[in-house]
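Whiteboard transcription, Tuesday session. T.W. wrote the structure tokens on the left side:
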């Protein structure tokens, strides 16, 4: 049996198992994807983010972060359960001195690995090392083509140039690593987004994944300047259509059209969002302090520093949370890391969007 056939059959079996588990409200054998936060330290002060820890507090933050050995223990546990993919986030992951040791260990275990980064700490030498270690994918935060606007959103002057240089280095040394950018959508950068797709194409990136900003992840005082309201929603509609048209034209992988067009609904009234969410079934998050949560908007159901992840995953308390998620009793969001996988896991999405489903499988097969 060929590798591609195995890939398709394995995916189909997992898809059926996942939907059956959700139907009977039973935990699957393992989350196929785990979002692993390895630090809350960050060198930027993004306008939309609640991780604005001052450098003078780093020493106290480090005390609560996973050690290198603890990260390896988590990886071993996930591997033994059957998890296939880990997505590392922060803070800024590359602020950790052991980041390359972590990358190497995860890849030696045969797991897929993605990293989210602001790119400002990635040098030419780092880009080569990242590719040599076999990192599967990296997403770099880039919000605008106007340097001053990107820097305003990210809170530190000079960020744009360092970020773009990192993207260029990663593309230049690209062997196995998929290089993508991940803009947030706000009222500040709304008109820039179609031009950002053009810019991404010029840079030679593989993917661009958009996401609306979320007030629950940021500061209330920024809501007025970041939210999209009133007649600006009509501008948002036009921008989304341009994004869809341009990404198709350039052959750049992006969010599903269902997700992109659903962004308006999020800004209009997120309480009207109604989807089959698979958070806690398909994936879960582990914070750098060890807390396990189905998604970023639900209280922890356990801590891997106190009990094994497998025990938490299969616990009755986690199943009770899954039951509430299935009922839609959660804080409504439009986070790509939860909503997009939920679309891909949903039987309704597969039936209604067969062409997108096939194109997704072809894209991800390239990076497995």
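and on the right, the sequence the group agreed on:
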């Amino acid at each position: 049996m060929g590798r591609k056939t195995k890939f398709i059959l394995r995916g189909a079996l997992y898809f059926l198992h996942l939907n059956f588990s959700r139907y009977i409200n039973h935990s699957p054998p393992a989350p196929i994807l785990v979002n692993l936060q390895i630090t809350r330290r960050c060198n930027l002060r993004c306008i939309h983010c609640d991780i604005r820890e001052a450098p003078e507090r780093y020493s106290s933050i480090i005390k609560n972060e996973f050690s290198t050995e603890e990260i390896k223990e988590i990886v071993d546990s996930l591997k033994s359960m059957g998890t296939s993919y880990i997505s590392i986030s922060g803070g800024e992951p590359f602020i950790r001195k052991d980041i390359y040791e972590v990358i190497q260990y995860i890849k030696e275990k045969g797991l897929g690995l993605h990293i989210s980064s602001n790119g400002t700490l990635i040098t030419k030498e780092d880009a080569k090392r990242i590719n040599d270690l076999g990192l599967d994918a990296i997403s770099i935060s880039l919000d605008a083509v106007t340097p001053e606007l990107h820097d305003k959103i990210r809170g530190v002057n000079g960020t744009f140039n360092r970020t773009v240089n990192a993207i260029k280095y990663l593309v230049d040394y690209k062997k196995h690593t998929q290089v993508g950018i991940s803009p947030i959508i706000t009222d500040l950068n709304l008109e820039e987004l179609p031009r950002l797709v053009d810019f991404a194409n010029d840079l030679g990136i593989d993917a661009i994944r958009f996401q609306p900003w979320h007030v629950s992840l940021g500061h209330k005082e920024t809501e007025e300047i970041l939210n999209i309201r009133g007649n600006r929603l009509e501008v948002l509609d036009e921008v989304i259509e341009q994004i869809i048209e341009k990404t198709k034209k350039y052959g750049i992988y992006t969010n599903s059209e269902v997700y992109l067009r659903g962004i308006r609904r999020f800004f209009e009234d997120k309480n009207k969002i109604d989807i089959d969410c698979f958070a806690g079934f398909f994936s879960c998050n582990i914070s750098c302090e060890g807390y396990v949560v189905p998604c970023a908007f639900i209280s922890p159901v356990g801590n891997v520093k106190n009990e094994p992840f497998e025990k938490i995953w299969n616990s009755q308390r986690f199943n009770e949370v899954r039951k509430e998620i299935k009922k839609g009793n959660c804080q409504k969001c439009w986070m790509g890391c939860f909503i997009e996988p939920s679309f891909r896991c949903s039987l309704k999405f597969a039936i209604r969007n067969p062409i997108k489903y096939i194109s997704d499988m072809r894209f991800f097969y390239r990076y497995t």
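Someone added at the bottom: The chain has a mean pLDDT of 88.
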